[in-house]
Amino acid sequence: PEVVEWYAEEVLPAAAADDRVNRAWLLETTFHVEETGPNLPQLFAVYESREVESGDGVGALDDVYIPDVGEWDAAPGPVERPRTSVREVLANLWFPSDGGEWWCSIRIDPIDTDDARENWEEIERWYTFRHLGETLVGEGLHQGWRLGHEVAQSGPTALHDHFRWAMYEQTKQEDMLLHVNKEPLQPIWFRFVDQESFGRGYHRVVGRA
Questions:
Q1: Which of 24, 80, 115, 208 has its CA 20 to 30 A from that of 50?
Q2: CA distances to 2, 12, 26, 46, 137 from 9, in Å
Q3: CB 93 within 8 A of CB 133
């Protein structure tokens, strides 16, 4: 808890004050019986950035998003070496609100077939222009992002280098499930998405800036 408070009250606001950052969240991964796939890290910070200069490289992003070695040493408890992952926002849909206290993460890869690779734009259009909007009209859902493939990374290798991510901000932990169980996915999902790659996790918002 002390490490969470330290990051939420000191590190997150300092990083969010950088001109390249729009907003920032600190998320705590929680267990849920409907969770699918490997867990994400227990704590992870999400930074919405205006732009990433191609010449900066991930090292410059580390300077913005991650405390230096001295600051980690000052943390009130042990902290493992963090990993930085940079992804492009493909789509963002939101409704004016104070935001939710929970997030749901969805991670997918395409099926490894010629048909899926050649026609992936079809599911991209469906996900962005139909599925994302249909999902966010569900009660308790505030905002959704579609994230592209990882364009830069530093730190330890992770198990979550999925081709596409979706993140949903919601009022209660179960809000996404209520919608998912009510609105079955269309055949296009099963045609192009590798079902074994699918991951879904739940995260409590413990800090925002």
A1: 80
A2: 10, 7, 10, 15, 32
A3: yes
Q: What is the dihedral of CA 11, 90, 197, 29, to 10 degrees?
A: 20
Are the CB atoms for 43 and 61 separated by under 8 Å? no
pLDDT number for residue 48? 86
DSSP SS3 for 180: helix
Burial of 80 (0-12, 13-18, 19+ CB in 10 A): exposed
pLDDT of residue 204: 93
> For residues 100 and 41, what is the distance between their CA atoms, to the nearest angstrom?
20
Q: What is the pLDDT of residue 56?
A: 44
In whole angstroms, give the CA distance from residue 113 to residue 178. Answer: 32
Task: Report how far apart, in Å, the C-alpha atoms of 37 and of each of 31, 126, 144, 198, 202 are.
Answer: 12, 23, 20, 7, 12
